[in-house]
Amino acid sequence: MSKRIVRRTFDLANLPPLTAKQKAEFAAVARRPERKIDLSDIPPLTAKQFRKAMRGATEGKKTNRIV
Questions:
Q1: 3-class DSSP state for residue 6?
Q2: Alpha-carbon span 27 to 23, nearest angstrom
Q3: d(CA 36, CA 52)
Q4: Strand extents, DSSP E, 1-67
Q5: Which residues contact 11 (CB under 8 A, 6 or more apart)?
Q6: Above 90 in pLDDT, residue 9?
Q7: Using 50, 70 and 90 to split pLDDT, how confident is the model at 26?
Q8: What span, in angstroms and rounded, lies between the C-alpha atoms of 65 and 7?
Q9: Can you name the residues that pair with 26 across neighbouring β-strands?
Q10: What is the greatest pairwise CA distance in the chain?
Q11: Within a 13 Å sphere around the CA of 57, how many CA atoms are in the beta-carbon half?
């Protein structure tokens, strides 16, 4: 089976408006108590990752690539 890579570039300052469905999904998550959100599939950060972390490192970037 061949793999097909799709690349998109987005202007983060000019995103398309959310659909009604997306707005409803965000509202449902916002209403959910934090203790009910399952984060168990997210691996813990290592000490090395914390040392390399930089606050605001992605601020000001105009585009992101989703691969």
A1: coil
A2: 6
A3: 30
A4: 8-9, 65-66
A5: 62, 63
A6: no
A7: very high
A8: 7
A9: none
A10: 42
A11: 4
